[in-house]
Amino acid sequence: MYEELAERRPLSGEAVIARPEWRFPAWATLQGDTVDLEPLDPGNHATDLYELSHGPNTSPDLWDYMPYGPFESQAAFTAWLASCATTADPMFFTVRDKRSGRAAGMASYLNIHPQLGSIEIGHIWFAPAIQASTRTTEAIYLMMRYAMTDLRYRRLEWKCNALNAASRRAAKRFGFRYEGTFYNHLIVKGHNRDTAWYSITDEEWPAVEASFEAWLDPSNFDAAGNQHRSLGSFRES
């Protein structure tokens, strides 16, 4: 039912020297070409985020694999955002679409362990207006690059419900390796959740980073915004 485990060079027993770069992420804006990731601010983001996730042309399916949502009202959603804004782990960011100027999604760092050089990206959702676009790919890349290039973490994690096919495809597309499935891991909204685990290590990151940079280069897109080559093809080459 689930994927084969990825092969990796065994590292157990190797000496590790902690790096000063393994610090807690700064709660600051990550700037990109098509999106910015801004620290979550309910006062500035709540209206856009609610309208673009609960308004016309949206579906409650957006929340199927999230431990929260959909929300019954703007007030309930804003109260939830206010609680998210008070936590350092998870550390929530809002995805600002530069094309429209609107807040159109969320993502976070979580399970942040600077002393181990390990960090996870999660709590990811994008409004239908930007799904399956360059903007969503760049948003994830900005978070990956900050953790692995700027902070030089040694391990970046991605976890999802094992039934969430879209998230599993995204993990593979972004260059994460499947590590295995934790069975009976959680109970979410009254249902069992088996959790699929993925990761990128520091020795794998340079090739993953290069593939993102090549894919995001404007020369990889035609005038209509269609890609010439896929992200995966750059990584394979």
What's the CATH first level? Alpha Beta
What is the beta-strand fraction? 25-35%
- Overall shape: it is globular
- The side-by-side strand order for the widest beta sheet comes to 1-2-3-4-5-6-8-7
Question: How is this structure best described in words?
Answer:
The chain is of the alpha+beta class. The protein has one domain: Gcn5-related N-acetyltransferase (GNAT) (Aminopeptidase), CATH 3.40.630. 29% of the residues lie in helices and 27% in strands. The protein contains 6 helices and 8 strands. An 8-stranded mixed beta sheet has the order 1-2-3-4-5-6-8-7, with helices on both faces. Strand 5, helix 3 and strand 6 form a beta-alpha-beta unit. The protein is globular, with a radius of gyration of 18 Å. The model has no long low-confidence stretch (mean pLDDT 95).
